[in-house]
Write a structure and sequence with these properties.
Layout (H helix, E strand, L loop, with lengths): L2 E8 L2 E8 H23 L13 H13 L3 H17 L3 H17 L3 H18 L2 H17 L3 H18 L2 H7 L1
Antiparallel strand pairs: 1-2
Helix pairs in contact: 2-3, 2-4, 3-4, 4-5, 4-6, 5-6, 6-7, 7-8
């Protein structure tokens, strides 16, 4: 028999509805291998071969952002640390700012709040010096999340307000939506 009975509830009460048996087998197979496949995908660390001292700063920052976007914050952190060292050595202040914000975000997601706080503050100061409102807003976001993790809701609210106001002023609706 290719059909199995299923008890379904609806506005007309409960009734038995025939469902194809292959659907049950497919569900069982997906429930069995699905979580294992997801865990295996998370366990594999994407190559961060692009994050070497000899890599151009722009490539390091792009790779760090790519890794962070797929929640590979450990490798992303290494990319941002390498980019930061290269940017400081080259006195490339805008790249230094981007690297500091990325490093602060990666450190926060790795629960290294001390580093996230320090790099977030340095990034905020540098963003103010350079007049980069978008990166200042990103730094304020990280500082708000760190303050939230520390249980300081008053400081967190101040940072979040600063970032949301900056996003609104810049017309950065996608950034604002992400922050909310």
């Amino acid at each position: 028999v290719l059909w199995a009975r299923c008890l379904c509830r609806g506005s007309g009460g409960e009734r038995r509805v025939p469902r194809p048996r292959p659907l049950y087998w497919l569900t069982l197979i997906l429930l069995t291998i699905g979580p294992g496949a997801a865990l295996a995908a998370q366990a594999t660390s994407p190559s961060s071969a692009a994050c070497t001292d000899s890599s151009p700063i722009g490539d390091l920052l792009a790779e760090g952002k790519r890794l962070a976007s797929i929640e590979q914050n450990g490798p992303a952190r290494r990319c941002f640390e390498t980019a930061l060292a290269s940017a400081v050595k080259a006195t490339d202040r805008p790249s230094e700012l981007t690297a500091r914000v990325g490093l602060a975000q990666a450190a926060y997601h790795l629960t290294d709040y001390k580093t996230a706080q320090a790099e977030g503050e340095r990034a905020a100061d540098l963003a103010d010096t350079l007049g980069d409102q978008l990166e200042a807003a990103h730094a304020a976001d990280v500082l708000g999340f760190v303050a939230t993790a520390a249980g300081d809701q008053v400081i967190a609210r101040q940072h979040f307000k600063k970032s949301l106001d900056a996003y609104a002023a810049l017309g950065a609706d996608a950034e604002r939506a992400t922050a909310l």
